[in-house]
Amino acid sequence: xxxxxxxxxxxxxxIFWHEHGSAQWRNVENRVMKTSSLSLxxxxxxxxxxQSRAGISxxxxxxxxxxxxxxxxxxxxxxxxxxxxxxxxxVEFFGALVFPVASDWDLKxxxxxxxxxxxxxxxxxxAEFTFVAHMPTLIGQYVLIEEGVYNVKLGGGAGYHxxxxxxxxxxxxxxxxxxxxxxxxxxxxNTAFGKDFFGYLGAxxxxxxxxxxxxxxxxxxxxxxxxxxxxxxxGIGARLGFTYYF
Length: 246
Fold this sequence. Notes:
Helix content is 21%, strand content 55%. By secondary structure, it is an alpha+beta fold.
């Protein structure tokens, strides 16, 4: 009898498991299958991957430029004892607005103010020449690295730039202006100081084609050698600043 009762008890347990336990197991299986299907539907590289964000950048830098026509114009006007160098260091200030347009691409609208001054001694007294360039540029950036706490971007772009050359020498006090296309190659890196505030490091190459410089009466300012200056130049620069992401 005891053996028979044990068989009945085991049989009842199997029936209960079949009716209830197996149903719960099937629910667990279904949940596991759904989770697995979701994981397969989303590629691993897209799960919790950092995304590029809109932001603003600002800062300053130093550029090493070669405004060859300006150099020739100053040498031909002042006739210094020693010819001034073809290359000149200049300071730049910049501000930019950047926003993502695709998973790996950003669009940056940048304004840069470039300033350089020549103080040239001569036998007739000191001369001062100051060139300025206003350089708005639209830049497409490819996101090389985006890790949330830092990023690296490489870009290129162009804009329509305006430049001027101010000159003070003896009785001469004039300002010449010109305009033209400028092209830029840009490399930047940002590293986090906080959730949204980043330090900015950058480097760039520029080719500017600001045309013939004229005064307010639209008169070209050819020097004694017959050189009418332009503000065309090649430049290489380095920058330091900040980026704030929204």
